[in-house]
């Protein structure tokens, strides 16, 4: 907003308390409730079926439990006559590992056959199986991808700006990721590969916003000769506020459209990104800038060093004489 004069840093203590509460709630929920991991990470079968009439998902879940398929989830998918069934690996009487793997791979077909006897006319849309070993590998690779992204960001900001900006950016990104994970843990939304992709996208989005704000803060520290660090950061935040809000709102409009009209498959992705955009906009204003003040950033930290000039031993510089060319 052109000409805005909001005192962002004047409310930094309130923002710090709010961030602390959100982080504490997220960590507590993740510690005690954990994430509701999808089949991408835990392994199991995903079965999508179509019915000729509406059936309550809870009724289908109770029927499957009575047939020996336990700990599964059933939900509508797109319409009330489409059901999505997620079933973790089930106990098996087989002893050989190959037989166990084969029985688990046939789990989706067994579920469909059991439902077909109860609901004639049911149509199988798709049946997918993910093995536990693949799920563990995906979980490890996903965690490694998040950690690698944060480390690379820290080194990039360190080379692009200074250590204060580097620490501020990484703290803001970690802040965003933990709160998004906390929301998924608190509400027990399914955490699958699409949500992991959304977390990586949140890191990229929040980083882009943080770099724009940081670049303006560095520019103003070098350009403005008067004013405390708080005043200069406030000025910088107000100057970039319009760009920040326009970018965030346009992105959020698209994500809300995906969230409400994109269907069940993309719901987790849209939810994670929507929360990430809101938290990322907040953190680029308050968290990253607040860390700069905590680390006592000053104008001297951002000044461009002037090149040294060679002089005489006594500190004087040689005088260059100009002589006109002799006439011919």
Overview of the molecule:
By secondary structure, the protein is α+β, with helices and mostly antiparallel strands. It is built from eleven helices and six strands. The strands form two sheets. The chain has a four-stranded antiparallel sheet with strand order 3-4-2-5. The protein has a two-stranded parallel ribbon with strand order 1-6. Strand 3 and strand 4 form a beta hairpin. The C terminus is likely disordered.
Distance from N terminus to C terminus (CA atoms, Å) equals 68 Å
- Structural class by SSE content: alpha+beta
Strand order, main sheet: write it out: 3-4-2-5
The largest pleated sheet is described as: 4 strands, antiparallel
As a percent range, the share of strand residues is 5-15%
- Tell me the radius of gyration: 29 Å
Oligomer: single chain
N-to-C order of helices and strands: HEHEHEEHHEHHEHHHH
Mean pLDDT: 80
Low-confidence stretches: 319-328
Assign an overall shape.
elongated
